[in-house]
């Protein structure tokens, strides 16, 4: 007869171990392991809480929509879903279900690092478990209005079968809208114009997610499904010479189904298979009303993605892992739009675009754990991709891209690690770049326009990390990138006009320096406190295709920094903290104008209070510095920055307001 341990007993056991002494993290070759007792001091109630408290580890959720995985695994695997944030997946796993969390450096144990130098692996207990949680929250705006949200989560594990159901309804304000002013200054000394804008917007979404897993044919199979309908509505009152109202009424729906199967084979081999299908639908209506006349711009988009992938892993010897696999992906995006000048006019079809990308990628790699101090990984991916658009020939061109990589990790002492990486990356082409600017209404223009190809980057990276004082860590890294076929805006000139299009503009170089410091404050009269400092400096160089002058890459932020502090107070059943960053600032160069976007710093503070073991009350104060968002536009005569004079400058500034979030979570 199987005897299961109730979840509450496991939690009590963890607390008892923590009270008896500090939990010790086990050190293995290239990895450090943390048991649940270690996290009792932080009052964690989910795997996400635990991961965020790992010493020297910085959580990265990845970008599922672009195929970029996060840096946290569950039982050595990444979640199948591409639409669900990794933080949500980890937030549904209760502490009672976690056996340990491993911090893995340099591919220890044959883990596929997916481009990260450090990942963490959440290992779940082989035990029966029933858990549930409900969360009610509301955003409180400065005018006292509320934007409520609710979530529910249920987990059941019996033997080899597991099921998870998650329901959510969320409403949130658009933090980028508020009181704005737009000032336009003309180069010919015409009187400047000023416009006042008042805007507000609300996002609303509903989601139903289901995950099921069980043993099958000596392996494990899992299925996930998700349905996510959403809406966005906004309005902006334009108080210029002519009073007008801009409004947006957008709606969409995302659907996903994923199937994964893994099985151990003979002689230390294992197999992983994956299938994924997802669709996204969007309908938007942008209206402008002035002088009793309302015009509408409508747009509809349907997108889909199909993925089939398989991977074989072989433990070839002591510390040696060989991995091979193949993935087939087909992405399709179909867009149409129309414009209606007034209620009495018929809608006029606009420029639509259809794009399909087909990609097959094979990979072969080997990871070698030489000893407790040295590990290495080498591999090669070979990508075959083709792109078809509604503006191109039926037989779209195909390309083959090799993507080699080499990683080394050296630990001359347990607290010190040196990591080196050299890798070639190939970007994914943006659908709008691929089709939206191919001269859909003028096929003769498209005939002289070169096909767009992905950007290719050679990366060389070195990182040095030092761990100290249990939770302390310092890291410094330098990355040098050499980029070919950079994608940006480029001019297509004729005798009568200049067209702004997306294209490959040549080669570029980029340098990045990143620093991180996690400093425990126990010796500073702030027990259980942790101060986190991080900063990133970037520099790049590319030849502007319009002016032929050297400049930065578009969208690059030269300097970014962030300061965070948190303190756990178990005796008071409380945790509190704050964070401050420097916002953003970047430039984008188009053929006829230069745009600068910036946002001032963001400040946030929070306090968690646990009135009972299964209750957590959270108060968040956001945007305490009242972020200002500015957008500066320098427009040139003739829509061409080459040998043209400045036509006008436009300065937009939006001042946003602080808001609060109140949240209550109960675990069952």
Task: Put the structure in a nutshell.
The chain is mostly beta strands and 668 residues long.
3D architecture notes:
- With 668 residues, the protein is mainly beta.
- The chain has a domain at 30-125: TonB-dependent receptor, plug domain (Ferric Hydroxamate Uptake Protein, Chain A, domain 1, Beta Complex), CATH 2.170.130.10.
- 6% of the residues lie in helices and 62% in strands.
- It contains 6 helices and 36 strands.
- It has a 22-stranded antiparallel barrel.
- The longest helix is centred in the first third of the chain and has 14 residues, at 7-20.
- It starts with 6 loop residues before the first helix and ends with a strand.
- The model is unreliable at 1-25 and 436-448 (pLDDT under 50).
- Residues 1-25 form the signal peptide.
- This is TonB-dependent receptor.
Features of the shown structure:
668 residues, mainly beta, disordered N terminus, signal, TonB-dependent receptor
Report how far apart the termini are: 26 Å
CATH architecture descriptor text of one domain: Beta Complex
The fold-level CATH name of one domain is: Ferric Hydroxamate Uptake Protein, Chain A, domain 1
**Low-confidence parts, pLDDT < 50 over ≥5 residues?**
1-25, 436-448
Q: According to CATH, what is the class of one domain? A: Mainly Beta
State Rg.
Answer: 27 Å
Helix content, binned percent: under 10%
Estimated share of beta-strand residues: over 45%
* Helical segment count: 6
Question: CATH homologous superfamily of one domain, by name?
Answer: TonB-dependent receptor, plug domain
Number of strands: 36
State the shape.
globular
Major β-sheet profile = 22 strands, antiparallel, barrel
InterPro entries: Plug_dom_sf (IPR037066)
Keywords: Signal
Protein name: TonB-dependent receptor
